[in-house]
Amino acid sequence: MRFVIPKRRQPPAVIIVALIDVLIVLLIFLMVTTTFKQQPALKLALPESTQALKTGATKKPPLVITIAANGSLYLEQLPVTLDRLKSEFAARAAVNPQLHLAISADTTAPVGQIVKVMDAAKESGLKAVNLFTKSPAK
Which of 35, 36, 56, 80 is 20 to 30 A from 116 in CA distance terms? Predict the structure, then answer.
């Protein structure tokens, strides 16, 4: 009888260098993707409201006007004057009549400045004007 002598196999070798390369690529990917969080340019203390609603993800994003504590105006994080804001509202309302305006004002922002922005929006034909608020801390 002839017996087959099994060949000695070497155990599979784990290549550590390849694993380290894959780990570094994953680490770089995670670091790059986590830095895309958009942070506001101004630090605002939003007023609290018990009726604050979260905006839906399916809605189109509104045109955001930011009013800082000193009363300065920012249209999508770019500084603007009130006259420039009126002309910008009129131009955007002509393009999109269903445009929504969202005012993000600091709690210490002058009320007169907020009213001026709301008046400019109504003069330009913007129908929906909302204010950003936050829910009260519980």
Answer: 56
CA-CA distances (angstroms) from residue 80 to 14, 120, 132?
61, 13, 19
Query: What CATH code would you report for 40-138?
Result: 3.30.420.270
pLDDT tens-digit readout, 37-53: 565 555 666 666 666 55
d(CA 137, CA 50): 10
What is the residue type of 113?
Answer: Q
pTM over 0.70: no
Segment 5-18, tens digit of pLDDT: 777 777 777 788 88
Domain map of the chain by residue range? 40-138
Query: Who contacts 85 (Cβ-Cβ below 8 Å, separation ≥6)?
Result: 65, 73, 75, 117, 120
Of 109, 35, 42, residue with least CA distance to 76: 42
Q: Give the CA distances from residue 48 to residues 56, 63, 134, in Å, rounded to whole numbers and listed in that order.
A: 19, 21, 5
Residues 6+ apart with CB under 8 A from 66: 40, 42, 44, 73, 74, 77, 104, 105
